[in-house]
Design goal:
The complex is a heterodimer. Chain A is α+β, with helices and mostly antiparallel strands. Chain A has nine helices and seven strands. The chains are: A alpha+beta, B mainly alpha.
Chain lengths: 248, 215
């Protein structure tokens, strides 16, 4: 396949970027999207040009590092996959592909397609964990009875990889799907209930401080999430937050 | 104002649900004008003269309307400022047009409310509390019909109610989600919301056209 690429180039966080056109030929439909980017970068390096910076790590759809906005959608045109799992067979010969970084003030561009998503780390640090005594007297988790329905919901919420596609697609750049998944994965389990009140209050406070927008329930985040995290989590977080605010 | 994003959502949702209740009551009374001039006059006279309605419920309603619009503007400004650099291309396929344009439909409804207040509320306040004219329990039906003589006004009202329908279509269900409702009743709520969002605005359009044609 021969493709025309329009890619956001930005030297650093302080410079203003622009879309730059590239042509790439002989792209195999079996390549992953990131492999296509690797080929393009090799060409740029061979011409002594600056390669395009983009985030990637596991390339197995687990780590949540890849973050491109491809043809108007985070992670591109395929459903329930990350950019690293997207294959070039999803495109046709002669297509123009528009590639941009995830856009949100809370995710500032570092270079080209690389954005700083450490806001998510700070939200996690504010309460996205269970404090547990590991002195040797810890109760075996398997001995704690948990309703199957809750275990399933908690697991589904825990599959969030924190890639930021929810923020990238939301018209308000809201992070509520991510935060609600992290709140839900603990609040549904007995181990997480002990700190549930502080967790939701602290995580939402941090989310607001990071400058994400407000959720208006458009549902775009749920559609674009590569892990299919449900909007139901946001309603649960709202409930948890209201309960915690009243008790506070 | 309210600092927490979730509490802002909840405040927006509760004020919206309050306005939905008011809309249901307003529609019920107005619809009586289609089949009974006398009943409409009686109900309007009650609403227009009852001290509880006039001095307690009416100020609460006005506060609710203003609060909903002001909070809507605040949320829109905050949301826009969360992404100052826009995408050069963004597909809109993952959400409905109306869910992304609640602010736009809200502004259309606000402009409609401006005309609606000018048409009905301002003359009513002038009649009762500025000119202190003697109450005439039979005047309400005539006032209503008179307003719908103008085809331009009927057209503007009808277009506004289409936007109200779209606004409700997303807002009604969204309000419940915002206050944390997501359970076995969610599908029932969604069905009720769609029915309300279609029936009530269409009913208001019907009332306007009915009085235009029969007035």
């Amino acid at each position: 396949m021969n493709l025309k690429l329009k890619i956001w180039r930005q030297k650093n966080a302080n410079s203003s970027g622009e879309m730059v056109d590239y042509n790439i030929s002989d792209v195999s439909p079996d390549m992953s999207f990131l492999e296509m980017m690797d080929v393009l970068n090799n060409e740029l390096i061979s011409k002594d040009q600056d390669p395009i910076s983009f985030d990637h790590d596991c390339r197995e759809g687990i780590c949540g590092m890849c973050s491109m906005h491809i043809n108007g959608r985070p992670h591109g045109p395929d459903d329930l996959v990350t950019t690293c799992q997207l294959h070039m067979r999803k495109f046709k010969d002669g297509d123009t592909i528009i590639i941009e970084p995830f856009r949100a003030d809370a995710f500032p561009v570092i270079k080209d397609l690389v954005v700083d998503r450490s806001a998510f780390d700070r939200i996690q640090q504010a309460g996205g964990f269970v404090s547990i005594n590991t002195s040797g007297n810890t109760q075996d988790a398997n001995t704690i009875p948990i309703a199957k329905e809750n275990a399933d919901k908690a697991f589904d919420a825990a599959t969030c990889i924190g890639c930021g596609a929810c923020v990238a697609t939301c018209k308000n750049a809201s992070a509520m799907l991510f935060v609600s998944a992290k709140v839900s994965q603990f609040s549904l389990l007995p181990q997480g209930k002990v700190e549930a009140k502080d967790r939701v209050l602290n995580m939402v406070k941090q989310m607001d401080e990071e400058g994400f927008g407000n959720c208006t329930n458009t549902g775009a985040c749920e559609v674009e999430c590569p892990k299919g995290i449900s909007l139901e989590n946001i309603a649960r977080m709202n409930r948890e937050y209201l309960k915690a605010s009243i008790k506070d | 104002m309210i600092e927490s994003s979730i509490l802002r959502k909840v405040a927006m949702a509760l004020s919206g649900l309050f306005l939905i209740l008011f809309l249901a009551q307003h529609f019920t009374i107005n619809f009586t004008s289609v089949f009974s001039e006398d009943l409409f006059n009686k109900l309007s006279h009650f609403m227009g003269t009852n001290p509880l309605v006039q001095f307690i419920l009416q100020p609460i309603l006005i506060f609710g309307v203003i609060f909903h619009f002001v909070m809507g503007f605040i949320l829109e400004i905050k949301n826009r400022s969360a992404r100052k650099v826009k995408y050069s291309y963004q597909s809109g396929s993952s959400s409905s047009w109306i869910s992304r344009n609640m602010f736009f439909s809200g502004v259309v409804i606000l402009s409609f409310l401006g005309l609606h207040f000018y048409d009905f509320w301002v003359p009513e306040i002038k009649y009762k509390y500025i000119e202190f004219l003697p109450e005439d329990p039979e005047r309400y039906y005539e006032e209503l019909v008179h307003k719908f003589h103008s085809p331009g006004r009927v057209a503007f009202y009808s277009i506004s109610f289409v936007f109200l329908s779209l606004h409700l279509m997303h807002g009604f269900v969204s309000s419940f989600k915002s206050v944390g409702v997501n359970n076995k009743y969610s599908n029932t709520i969604k069905t009720m919301a769609i029915a309300f969002s279609v029936i009530v605005p269409l009913g208001f359009i019907f009332i306007a056209i009915f009085h235009h044609l029969n007035g």
